[in-house]
Amino acid sequence: MRRIALMIATLAALLASAGAAEAKYTIKPVITNPQLVVYENGQAVPVTVEKTGANTYSATVTLTQTVIKQYKLIQQVIIYQTPEGKVIKQVPGPTEKVPVGTKTEGPSQANLGLKFTVAVQGNYPWVVKYSPIYVNVTYDGNKIYTYTIKPRYKVGDTFTLPPQGYIKFTAAPGSHTITITAKFKSAAPWLVPSDTETATINLTVEVKKQTKEEIVGKEIKKIIKIVKTPTKPTVTKPVHMVGGLLMDVPLALAEVLI
Question: Residue 102: which of 216, 203, 22 has the closest Cα?
Answer without folding.
Answer: 216
